[in-house]
Specification:
The complex is a heterodimer of chains A (163) and B (279).
Chain A: E1 2-9, E2 12-19, H1 24-31, E3 50-53, E4 56-59, E5 72-74, H2 87-94, H3 104-117, H4 123-129, H5 141-162
Parallel strand pairs in A: 1-5
Antiparallel strand pairs in A: 1-2, 3-4, 3-5
Helix pairs in contact in A: 2-5
Chain B: E1 7-10, H1 14-22, E2 27-30, H2 36-42, E3 48-51, E4 61-63, E5 69-72, H3 77-82, H4 84-89, H5 91-97, H6 103-106, H7 111-116, H8 123-130, E6 134-138, E7 143-147, E8 152-154, E9 157-158, E10 165-171, E11 179-185, E12 196-203, E13 209-215, E14 222-223, H9 225-234, H10 239-249, H11 260-278
Parallel strand pairs in B: 1-3, 2-3
Antiparallel strand pairs in B: 4-5, 5-10, 6-7, 6-10, 8-9, 11-12, 12-13, 13-14
Classes of the chains: A alpha+beta (163), B alpha+beta (279).
Bound molecules: flavin-adenine dinucleotide and FE2/S2 (inorganic) cluster (2 copies).
Flavin-adenine dinucleotide sits between chains B (28-36, 38, 52, 73, 100-101, 105, 108-110, 112-114, 116-117, 121-123, 160, 165-166, 191, 193) and A (43-45).
Chain lengths: 163, 279
């Protein structure tokens, strides 16, 4: 069974036919060719498929594409461009929080969702939010430092905007 | 990688959800899908998924007729955990609900889904048992109320009949204010089902009332009334005996998460620890 869905992806309206048994992750990767979100476990355990659905972090592998009609998805591809990186992306580079990079899009999207809800998380709140994102390379320390650094930059930016 | 083939239909009303289920043998309701989608990938054959998330009334948390709180079946656990009234009146439930999976999973997973999946490890089930919650279930002919105490029959088995839709879960006014202390062991701190967990709660007006619930140590989540009665009768001096009552009440198995012996020992340790924390 096919469904026609209209969904905003990174601000662009997309209209596509999807299969009932297609996941959000497969829709992004196989239909839209957005391969930033990764397929790791495909069962909700690793977080490499993390994207934002209406601003909230969700596992792309546990969400159906057919559910997306009328909703909004944000992926790592919409975050920053070369030369104009998002503070999270710059901080990940600065703190060497990326090794193989497989977990990175998921970790960044989870962090983005958290920082939008809570601009100044404690270390524990950060670790709790990231419990569903596995990284096999970094040992997490660099990731945590990068996010706290990015959070600082983002707070300063939003203060400037409101001033 | 695609899932096995099935139809997807989103219902807009409870009536429509029931009809969509009834007209297609092998149909299944879906809330967050965090259990269902994972199960369809490996073992569960489903011909039609009936999505209940777009039914407005199932997305509400409202005051119930008796002054308690009714939680709609499509409310995500993250919304439940952030709800001011639920946080204020039913902290023991929030304590357990915010332990399910991890951050993003709770944006999708629901309380009703956690119940209907009827896992012996369902974290929210102990809180609902301890708070004497009621499940409202509806089919084409009637609506009925099932006390959570009668809901779990065994691993994956509940008192729900085929085609019955849970519409809401009601927390009674008399359970408001119970303070909870949830002690949960798992192989890692996030994203793993409990190997063993104990919820103890204390509340009530006048002489304190106690509640003790266990997870992952019996075919169903368990309430240990013997332990509660000891505490109510004799107070903190009964902690060791209450913990022993909990230890005797469970019937754990050995699996990948822990051995039966370890689980039983930990039930005693965690019950004592929890009761001491509340005393
Ligand atoms: C990676 C991962 C980690 C997890 N960690 C935990 C954990 O730590 N603790 C824990 O307790 N659980 C955990 N779970 C299990 C799961 O997330 C929870 O049980 C969740 O609450 C299920 O809710 P849902 O809305 O996603 O249910 P769904 O998957 O939508 O449904 C679950 C079942 O209930 C049925 N159902 C759903 N809603 C209704 C309804 N209203 N009426 C009748 N039947 C209905 C469905 O048909 C299905 O059989 C985990 C799952 C994953 C994938
Ligand atoms: S691929 Fe979705 S959590 Fe692993
Ligand atoms: S950088 Fe390799 S998995 Fe995280």
């Amino acid at each position: 069974m096919r469904h026609t869905i209209t969904v905003r992806v990174n601000g662009v309206e997309e209209r596509h036919e999807v299969d009932a048994n297609q996941t959000l992750l497969s829709f992004l990767r196989d239909t839209l060719n957005l391969t930033g979100a990764k397929q790791g476990c495909n069962e909700g355990e690793c977080g490499s498929c993390m994207v934002l659905l209406d601003g909230k972090a969700v596992n792309g592998c546990l969400t159906l594409a057919a559910e997306l009609d009328g909703h909004e998805v944000a992926t790592i591809e919409g975050l920053g461009q070369a030369g104009a990186l998002h503070p999270l992306q710059s901080a990940f580079l600065k703190h060497h929080a990326v090794q193989c990079g497989f977990c990175t899009p998921g970790v960044v999207m989870t962090s983005l969702a958290l920082l939008q809800e809570n601009p100044k998380p404690t270390e524990l709140q950060l670790k709790t939010a990231l419990a569903g994102n596995l990284c096999r390379c970094t040992g997490y320390r660099q990731i945590l430092d990068a996010i706290q650094d990015a959070a600082k930059t983002m707070r300063a930016q939003s203060k400037r905007r409101t001033a | 990688m695609l899932l096995p083939r099935f139809e997807y239909r989103a219902a807009r009303t409870v009536g429509e959800a029931l009809t969509l289920w009834a007209e297609q043998p092998g149909a299944r309701f879906m809330a967050g899908g965090t259990d269902l989608i994972a199960q369809m990938r490996t073992r569960r054959k489903v011909s039609r998924v009936v999505d209940i998330k777009q039914i407005p009334e199932l997305n509400q948390i409202r005051e119930s007729e008796d002054g308690g709180v009714a939680i709609g079946a499509a409310v995500a656990l993250s919304a439940l955990c952030e709800h001011p009234r639920v946080r204020e009146r039913y902290p023991a439930l929030v304590e357990c609900a915010c332990q399910v999976g991890a951050y993003a999973l709770r944006n999708r997973a629901t309380l009703a889904g956690n119940l209907c999946n009827a896992s012996p490890a369902a974290d929210t089930a102990v809180a609902l048992l301890a708070l004497e919650a009621k499940v409202v279930a509806t089919n084409m002919d009637r609506s009925r109320v099932i006390p959570v105490e009668e809901f779990f029959l065994g691993p994956g088995k509940s008192a729900l009949e085929e085609g019955e839709l849970v519409t809401e879960i009601v927390l009674p006014a008399r359970s408001a204010g119970f303070q909870g202390s949830y002690h949960r062991q798992s192989r890692r701190r996030g994203m793993d089902l409990a190997s063993v967990a104990v919820l103890v709660a204390k509340g009530g007006e006048g002489a304190p009332r106690y509640r003790v619930g266990l997870v992952s140590v019996a075919p169903t989540p368990l309430r240990v009334r013997a332990a509660e009665e000891l505490m109510e009768r004799e107070g903190p001096s009964a902690i060791a005996r209450a913990a022993e009552a909990a230890r005797l009440a469970c019937s754990p198995i050995t699996d990948a998460r822990a051995s039966a012996e370890y689980r039983r020992e930990m039930v005693g340790v965690l019950t004592a620890r929890g009761l001491a924390a509340l005393a």
